[in-house]
TrEMBL record:
<keyword id="KW-0874">Quinone</keyword>
<keyword id="KW-0830">Ubiquinone</keyword>
<dbReference type="Pfam" id="PF00346">
    <property type="entry name" value="Complex1_49kDa"/>
</dbReference>
<keyword id="KW-0813">Transport</keyword>
<feature type="domain" description="NADH-quinone oxidoreductase subunit D">
    <location>
        <begin position="149"/>
        <end position="419"/>
    </location>
</feature>
<dbReference type="InterPro" id="IPR001135">
    <property type="entry name" value="NADH_Q_OxRdtase_suD"/>
</dbReference>
<dbReference type="InterPro" id="IPR022885">
    <property type="entry name" value="NDH1_su_D/H"/>
</dbReference>
<comment type="similarity">
    <text>Belongs to the complex I 49 kDa subunit family.</text>
</comment>
<dbReference type="GO" id="GO:0050136">
    <property type="term" value="F:NADH dehydrogenase (quinone) (non-electrogenic) activity"/>
</dbReference>
<dbReference type="InterPro" id="IPR029014">
    <property type="entry name" value="NiFe-Hase_large"/>
</dbReference>
<keyword id="KW-0472">Membrane</keyword>
<dbReference type="GO" id="GO:0005886">
    <property type="term" value="C:plasma membrane"/>
</dbReference>
<keyword id="KW-0520">NAD</keyword>
<keyword id="KW-1278">Translocase</keyword>
<protein>
    <recommendedName>
        <fullName>NADH-quinone oxidoreductase subunit D</fullName>
        <ecNumber>7.1.1.-</ecNumber>
    </recommendedName>
</protein>
<dbReference type="GO" id="GO:0051287">
    <property type="term" value="F:NAD binding"/>
</dbReference>
<keyword id="KW-1003">Cell membrane</keyword>
Length: 419
């Protein structure tokens, strides 16, 4: 797969790399002084939510950094174990709440794997639309706030203008803008509305020039380059050993994307490239997300051109709510509706795991079922939580002023950290 291009290097690249890549020993051994312990967060704009950073400083140089999470204490996994499978769908919106459509899809695919169901071809195509729109939306925000963290306000305005258009599409598709709750186990709540395909095409034609404009504003920008190149370097070996996924893993040069390695939703039918970095620094992670947006546009165009007809939900009528009109007219459908609404779908005993390539990385759901409509155990592999684990490894040796750049490049969401 192609590596993202790095044509714009700062003159002091070698010096900066020597400082930030060699680690704490070579950067702080010669510094003598009293160390200071500093709390950054959990209420700080650069921590992107309720993340607390416990920093040990020697002057302006970080000698130790420990991320402290848990300030949301939401208990989503335990909530899931006391709910029917479909009742938990709205809670998945609140994991990575910047990509709720993708969360809905990942969770539904996990339960469908347990049930042994496969959504029809049109339903799978609709889910690809949801996932790729969510990826563009999440990356627009990630790049926008990352740029703002290092001083580029104009980019933030560009990205949020385009995200508003995606929210309009979400509202047209699901009836909600932010917490969509669109999928159901076995399909979707409704088919694409009239005019939706044309609206998506219009958006794709508008967002591509904006991505190019953001590229012009940032990629050659001397200030942005100085704030991101050779900072927050994650080696390929460290990225793998710490379990990083998504753009943070691919930025370190690891070619791993579940849409390619373990295809689902017919991703194998679409042509797209997986961009990878070469150095694993903040700049590479920015370049990877920029190219991923272009590739998502490429995928969406192919879906629009090949969108099949037919049903959108599985044919197993016993596991789905019957048509509302029939519920109001026939006793059998009313009883069926009552059973599904009160007891949930009748899942078989077993254990399954399904991971999807979400904007932040691999969002996985492990489900242990003992039968019936409620999972015995449900565990969530949230990529932001795992991606944050490398902070204590990568942050020492950096300056205090580098923290916004490093955290912004990791692009995490605390909603799925404190799951």
């Amino acid at each position: 797969m192609p590596a993202v291009t790095r044509e714009y290097e700062t003159p002091d690249t070698a010096a900066k790399a020597a400082m930030h890549l060699d680690g704490l020993e070579e950067t702080t051994n010669d510094i003598v002084g009293e160390k200071l312990v500093l709390n950054m967060g959990p209420s700080h704009p650069a921590t992107h939510g309720v993340l607390r950073m416990i920093l040990e400083l020697d002057g302006e140089i970080i000698t130790k950094a420990e991320p402290d999470v848990g300030y949301l204490h939401r208990g989503d996994e335990k909530i899931a174990e006391n709910m029917h499978y479909n009742q938990f769908v709205p809670y998945t919106d609140r994991l990575d709440y910047l990509a709720p459509l993708a969360n809905n899809v990942a969770y539904s695919l996990a339960v469908e794997k347990l049930m042994g169901w496969e959504v029809p071809e049109r339903g799978r195509a609709i889910r690809v639309i949801c996932c790729e729109l969510a990826r563009i939306s999440a990356h627009l925000l990630g790049v926008g706030v990352f740029a703002m963290d290092v001083g580029a306000m104009t980019v933030f305005l560009y990205t949020f203008t385009e995200r508003e258009k995606i929210y309009n599409l979400c509202e047209q598709l699901t009836g909600a803008r932010f917490t969509t709750s669109y999928t159901r186990v076995g399909g979707q709540i409704r088919d694409l509305p009239d005019g939706f395909v044309e609206a998506v095409r219009k958006f794709l034609n508008e967002v591509e020039p904006v991505i190019d404009e953001i590229d012009k504003l940032l990629t050659r920008n001397a200030i942005f380059i100085a704030r991101t190149q050779d900072l927050g370097v994650i080696s390929k070996e460290d990225a793998i050993s710490y379990g990083l996924t998504g753009p943070n893993l691919r930025g370190s040069g690891v070619e791993h994307d579940l849409r390619k390695t373990q295809p689902y939703l017919d991703y194998q039918k679409y042509e797209f490239d997986i961009p990878i970095g070469t150095k694993g620094d903040c700049y590479d992670r920015y370049l990877v997300r920029m190219e991923e947006m272009r590739q998502s546009v490429r995928i969406l165009r192919q879906v629009m051109d090949t969108l099949p007809g037919g049903p959108i939900n599985v044919a197993d009528a016993k596991g789905l709510l019957p048509n509302k009109e029939r519920v109001l007219m026939k006793m059998e459908e009313l009883i069926h509706h009552f059973i599904i609404a009160t007891q949930g779908i009748d899942a078989p005993p077993g254990e399954v795991y399904f991971g999807a390539e979400n904007p932040k990385g691999e969002l996985g759901f492990y489900i242990h079922s003992k039968g019936g409509g409620v999972p015995y155990r449900l565990k969530i592999r949230s990529p932001s939580f795992i991606n944050l684990s490398i902070i204590s490894k990568m942050m020492p040796g950096h300056m205090l002023s580098d923290i916004p750049s490093v955290l912004g490049s990791l692009d995490f969401v605390m909603g799925e950290c404190d799951r």
